[in-house]
Amino acid sequence: MDLQIKYDNGQMTIHMDAFFPASQARLKKLLKVVDLDHTNKENHIQLMETYFNEQMQKLEEQRKSSAKLHLEYRQKAADTQTMVESRKKPNGVSLTKEELADCKDSLKEFKRLAGEHLQCHNRCQRKKQQFKSNLEILKQRK
After folding, report:
1. In angstroms, rounded to a whole number, what is the distance separating the alpha carbons of residues 142 and 132?
2. Does position 85 have pLDDT exceeding 90, yes or no?
3. Helix orientation angle between 41-86 and 97-141, rounded to the nearest 10 degrees
């Protein structure tokens, strides 16, 4: 999604997916340029506000999904860890050497996936907060 800003001395195209979320300083600089486009100022601000709300909603959905997957992989890792430590299946049958090796590999993979989903959850949370901050700055300008 692009934001086309035209003013007396020229024009500017902002690729919103790459530009946002922005720091307060960058957003305020952009808003000064938006102020120069007198005819479309309100449209630009409305477009940014809509974009911020959509992104926050997408990030929230992704955050919830990542949290759920993180917990699932943590549980799988815990179950596999128990099997590796006891060297037995949940039904009490002993693991063969091959099954034990497979369990250890699975354990590493489950821990790795749990960590990746936790990072994704945290990243979504940070970005959502940044968009929230950007939205508050926009609302102050109205």
Report:
1. 16
2. yes
3. 160
Percentage of residues in the chain having pLDDT higher than 70: 99
Q: Which two tokens stand for residue 59?
A: 């990030």
Tokens of 7: 């003013």
* Cα 56 from chain centroid (whole Å): 9
What does pTM read for this prediction?
Answer: 0.88
pLDDT tens digits, 21-47: 999 999 999 999 999 999 999 999 999
Q: What is the mean pLDDT of the chain?
A: 96
Structure tokens at 46: 């409305």
Tokens 């449209």 identify what position?
Answer: 43
3-state SS class at 37 = coil
**Which helix (H) or strand (E) covers residue 14, if one does?**
strand 10-15
| Closest residue by Cα to residue 126 from 67, 54, 63 | 63
DSSP letters along 60-109, please? Answer: HHHHHHHHHHHHHHHHHHHHHHHHHHHTB-TTSPBPPHHHHHHHHHHHHH
CA angle 44, 28, 14 (to 5 degrees): 45
